[in-house]
Batch of 2 targets.
Target 1
Amino acid sequence: MNYDVVGLGQCCIDYLGVVGQYPDINEKSEISDLTVQGGGPVATAMVTLARLGARTAFVGKISDDYFGDLIKESLTSEFVNIDNIIVEKDKRSQFAFITIEKETGKRTIFWSKATVTPLRPDEVNRNLISTAKILLLDGLMKEGSLEAAKHARDAGVTVVIDAGSMREGSLELIKMSDYFIASEDFARQYYNGNDPKAAAMDLLELGAETVIVTLGEKGSISVSRKSYLYQPSFKVKAVDTTGCGDVFHGAFIFGLLQRWDLNKIMRFASATAALKCREIGGRTAIPDLREVEEFLEEEIPK
C-alpha cells in the first residue's frame, strides 16, 4: 500500500490533568479532568493527517510494556498504520505527566524517557519511505532520521522536519529538508536572540526550500527565497495547548498534499491548531476537514 505521509519519530503516552493554579514546592493542588492519550510530535501529526483524510504510516520504537500497548492502540484507533513500529522487549516506552493551568491552557510537562534504543539506520524501512509523497521527521533519533531523510531525497520524496529544540543532528537535517518547521524555542536557541524572522532567514541559507517558525499564540511566519509571510493566530478559548505545534505540522503537510499555495497552507494549519486547543490533550479535539473548513468560513485571525 502507498501512503501519503510516513512519519518517523517519537511516540509516547500522556497523562493530563487540569489545576486551578500551579502549586509551589511542598504544596498540593487538586487535579481535575484527568485523561490518558497518545502523544509525541510525529505520532500526533500522523493522527492529525488521518483525521483530515490522508493515508499515514508511523515508524518508531517502543517496548512490550503497558505504555507500548497504549501507544499502538492510540494510533491504530485513528487508522494510522503501525506495521513498522519496532518493539524492543523488556524495556520502557516513553510517558509523560502534563498539568494544565485552567485559566490560560498553558501546560507543564514532566516526562520519563524511553529506555528502548534509538532507531538504527538498518531498522529504517526504505521501501516504505519510497511509497510516500511526504516524509515527516522530528530528528529525535539522529542516525535513523538522517538515513530516512537521505533515502527520501534519493527517492524524490518531500522531506518536512519538525524542529522543536536544538539537538545533535538538527543542522544536518535542515540541509536535507524541503520544509523546516522550527519552534520559537529552536529559533531562539539557534540565533541566540529573540528575532524569529532573522533566525528563519539565517536557517534558510542552510538549504531548506522554506523555513517556518511557529510562535504559539503570536501566530507563525514562513520565509522562502521568494517571500515572507506572517500568519496571525486564530482566537479561541484555549483549554489546553498540548500538541498544538504537532497538529500545526500535520495540517501544514495536508496543505502540501493538496498543492495549495503557502498562504492558504499557513492559514489552514493555524486554524487546525487553534481548534485543537478546545479540549484537554494533544489529540482529543483535533478536527476533521469539514470542521476546519467551516471554522475558516466564519473566523477572522486576531
Target 2
Amino acid sequence: MRALPPLGKRLPMLAVAVPRARVLATTVLAAVVAVLLVLVPSGGAYAAAPAIAFTDTEPVAPGVVFHTFSLPTSHGTVQGYDLDVDLSQPGGARLGLLRPDANRVRTTPSAMADALGAVAGVNGDFFNIEESQHPGVEPTGMTDGPEVSDGFGGKAAVPDSQRFGPALPPGTSTRDVFGVGRDGRARLGTLDLDGKVDLPDRTIALDGLNQYALPENGVGAFTSWWGAASRLRATCGSDTRRAAPCSTRTLEVVVQDGRVTDMHPTPGAGLIDPDGFVLVARDAGVDELAGLRVGDPVHVNAHLVPEGTSPFTFAVGGFPILRGGAPLAGLDPVTLAPRTSAGATADGQHVHLVAVDGGAASGNGLSVAELADVQRDLGCAVATNEDGGGSTSIVARPAGGDHVLLRNRPSGGAERPVANGIGVFTSR
C-alpha cells in the first residue's frame, strides 16, 4: 500500500468636465484632499489610492504583463516590478508552485521557472536558511509554511516560534497562505494539518508533515517531498524558542510498502522512496513509537485542511499584509528591505506579483507597511509578504522567448537559491 505519496484594478480615473467658474474652487478642494490623504496613516481606511505610474510595460504571454515602476518615498526613490496576471480566461494564465527537484535543497527562481516551464515568477516563502544556534545541525532549506501543488498538500507549517523571517503581524501565523482555489480564484487562506498514524495496536495523532521543526513531544512524517536533507533539525528548538537546544530523546522509524524496515535513535538524511515514508519522534513522542518492531504494519493518513474555504489547487506560505483592501494593523512601518509580495483583487481574478529593489541605489527598499500600500494601490484586496532581502527575485520571459530573465537587481548582486516560488504558467 502506498501509505503517503509526495503531497499536493486599479480603478479607472474618472474624467469630469468642470465649468471654468468652478476651476479655482475645485483646485483648492483637491489640495485639501491631498493633504488629508497624506495624513491618513498607512494602516488606516483606504479612501483613494495614489497612482503608481508604470515606467515600462511589456507583454510576457497571454494574460501576463510585466511592469516596472519608480516609487518616490520619504527615504528615496524605490525601483519596483509587477507581474500582472489575469486568471479569468479559461485555459489562460495560471499560478503554480515552483520547487527544486528532490536532490536540491535550494534553487534560484529562474532555474525553477525554466525547469518547470513557467513564463514568469517570483521567490516564495521564508525558509530555514541557517542554523548558527544549533552547532553541527545542517539547515534544511525547507520553508516555514505549507505548500500545495496541483491540489496536493506536500508539507505543513512549522510552529510559529520556529519560523524564520520578520515578526508576524497580530492574528497571523505560519499556517497562512496565498493561493488559488478549485474555482480558479486567488485568495488568502489558512491550512491546518489533519493527520494520523495507524500503529499495530492503536492510532496516534500526526504532529508534522515534511517540516524542519516539530512541536515538542511530537511525531512527524517525512515523504519523498522532503528531498535528501537531514531530518535532525526537526528535533531542535521548542514551542517557545527557535534557539532552544535539540532534543536528547529522538527516534526515527523507516517504513516501506506499509511495514517498518528500520529504526534509528537519531534522525538521518537521504532521499525517501515514493512508496515509503519516515517517522521522526522527539521527547515524549518517542514513547508513542517505542514499541514498534521491524515488520510491523504502519500507515499514515495526512491532509492539509483549509479553514472554512474550499481546497487549494496551489498555495504557498507568507504572512498576510492586506485584507479587505486595508493594510493589517501592526505592520512594521520602519525596517527597510527589498521585498516580494503576492496580491489579488477582491474577485480573485487578477494577481499582482510584486518585487522591489533595496540598497542605496533604490531607497533602501520598503517597509512591510509600505509594501501593503503598494499592493492596495495596484487594486489588490488581499496580499502577503513573501521572503525578501537577498531572496527577492522576479523573473519573466521576453515576448516570444523560451527562458526567463532576471528582471530586478538582487541586493546580494545575484539571485539567491531559495526554497520555493510562485510560478506563472500559460498553455500557449
